[in-house]
Amino acid sequence: MAIRVVRLGSPRAKDEGIRIGTVRRPPRGVPKSEFASGDWYDVWFPNLAPSAETVKIAQNAKAAAEWAKFAKKYRSEMAAPENSHAIELLAALSHETNFSVGCYCEDESHCHRSVLRELLAERRAKIESSHS
């Protein structure tokens, strides 16, 4: 049992389980009826996505210091009780079932999912080691 951190729209891994989209918006140009069959996500959970303002910080981050500013702001947003409780829940579920969380970004190292991976690990989630 474990969480996979994935790129939404990528092929699903064997036994991946339910795929949760931690994104602000649904995929563009994809009918809602095709979200799951197109390997986007089964459940949309924008609560764990960065705010629009914070996304802009990430998109404009070219240097390590700018990325650190994004990570700090995103961590601050995830510290809000409703988000923190959701992360705790996902961490606990990772010991009982397989599922994945993800975003559309091609490069995880320059995506909020890299920080979300850290937040889950800090709460002792069982995380699949492969990066997507």
Brief rundown of the structure:
By secondary structure, the protein is of the alpha/beta class. The protein has 4 helices and 4 strands.
Structure description:
Helix content is 36%, strand content 12%. The chain has helices at 52-60, 64-78, 81-93, 112-122, and strands at 3-7, 18-21, 43-44, 99-103. A 4-stranded parallel sheet has the order 1-4-2-3, covered by helices on one side. The chain is globular, with a radius of gyration of 14 Å.
In round numbers, the mean pLDDT is 95
Runs with pLDDT <50, length 5+? none
Q: Give a count of the beta strands, DSSP E runs of length 2 or more.
A: 4
Main sheet specs: 4 strands, parallel
Order of strands, main sheet, comes to 1-4-2-3
- β-strand amount: 5-15%
> What's the structural domain tally?
1
The best one-word shape is globular
Taken in chain order, the helices and strands follow as EEEHHHEH
Q: Give Rg in angstroms.
A: 14 Å
Q: How many helices? A: 4
Task: Give me the secondary-structure topology.
Layout (H helix, E strand, L loop, with lengths): L2 E5 L10 E4 L21 E2 L7 H9 L3 H15 L2 H13 L5 E5 L8 H11 L10
Parallel strand pairs: 1-4, 2-3, 2-4
Characteristic key phrases:
alpha/beta, globular, 132 residues
